[in-house]
Design a protein that fits this description.
CATH topology of the largest domain: Rossmann fold
Number of strands: 10
CATH architecture of the largest domain: 3-Layer(aba) Sandwich
Largest sheet: 6 strands, parallel
Strand content: 5-15%
Number of helices: 12
Shape: globular
Oligomer: single chain
Helix content: 40-55%
């Protein structure tokens, strides 16, 4: 595994980049690619989500086929592996052999080899390239890109990675092996666990009549303190759940991918499985589009905290 920072050499020629999927992450990535001077063609199933990118110089297209036609790099940032495959199949008439495909959707271990096989069938240079980070680092171009793929083509894809991220961590030279996705799932398992624990801790504090400030004061500066806990705690306590940094419904999807990956390799992941159910309950209560910290509400049967004891 190698780590490449933003000071690495990049190609001097500007690229044409098709960004397929302009949700929370994809829109921010497309905007930063355009700001780096590259030509961006953006597509989203719901066009209204892509339209604001026109103000940043992106060309919003009617179809995936139109977006990828003549592109040097195709970047997919969609809901899951199935969505990525469906959209790329729609793009086939516009694809040309030799195009680089940076697949950044968190797709799961079963999907990545299928996507890589599709790429090989159509002569695409495939990179398994999920990213670590949420809305704020995405908007700031400070994501961490986890990447696996051949040396041939890296000089083309690196400028794109450097436009969206502060670091590129190379995990291997075979995208089909899903080494980048494996590392992403491990990292996300920690994110899911911390978020679920933060929500449960604050829910218990509410139920027991404990001031959350007393809890945070108790752990301040010690080994139990951590920035992510405080960030998610603040989102819950200060009404910062919208707009989402990472939505509840997407967190549920990722938690289930983590559980499936563990099961496929003989690892039982009780915390991830329980977290998936918490996210599902929160979504059913109407919090699906809010930040994943809204799983806090899943601790209460009525979806809202009762009066504290």
């Amino acid at each position: 595994m190698t780590d490449t920072g933003t000071d690495s050499a990049t190609a001097t020629d500007k690229l044409t980049v098709a960004v397929l999927g302009t949700g929370i992450m994809g829109a921010a990535m497309a905007r930063n690619i355009a700001r780096a001077g590259h030509t961006v063609r953006a597509w989203n199933r719901t066009r209204a989500k892509a339209e604001p990118l026109a103000a940043d110089g992106a060309h919003v297209t009617e179809s995936p086929e139109e977006a990828v036609r003549g592109a040097d790099v195709v970047l997919t940032m969609l809901y899951d592996g199935g969505a990525a495959m469906e959209v790329m199949r729609e793009a086939v008439p516009g694809l040309r052999p030799g195009t680089v495909w940076a697949q950044s959707t968190t797709a799961g271990l079963e999907s990545v080899p299928l996507l890589a096989s599709f790429a090989a069938e159509h002569g695409l240079v495939f990179y398994d390239a999920p990213v670590l980070g949420t809305r704020q680092p995405a908007e700031a171009g400070q994501l961490t890109v986890l990447a696996a793929g051949p040396a041939r083509g890296r000089e083309t894809v690196l400028p794109v990675f450097e436009a969206v991220g502060a670091r590129t961590v190379w995990t291997g030279d075979d995208g089909a092996a899903a080494t980048a996705t494996r590392l992403k799932l491990v990292a996300n398992s920690w994110v899911v666990a911390v978020t679920a624990a933060a929500g449960e801790t604050l829910a218990l504090a509410h139920g027991l009549g404990v001031d959350p400030a007393d809890f945070f004061g108790l752990i301040a500066g010690g080994p139990l303190d951590m920035g992510y806990l405080r960030a998610k705690g603040a989102a819950i306590l200060e009404g910062g759940l919208s707009p989402a940094s990472f939505a509840v419904v997407t967190a549920e999807k990722d938690a289930r991918l983590i559980v499936a990956a563990g099961e496929a390799h003989g690892v039982r992941l009780d915390v991830a499985a329980a977290s998936a159910e918490r996210f599902a309950r929160a979504a059913a209560q109407g919090h699906g589009d809010e930040d994943m910290a809204a799983a806090y509400y899943a601790s209460f049967d009525e979806g809202e905290p009762p009066a504290a004891v």
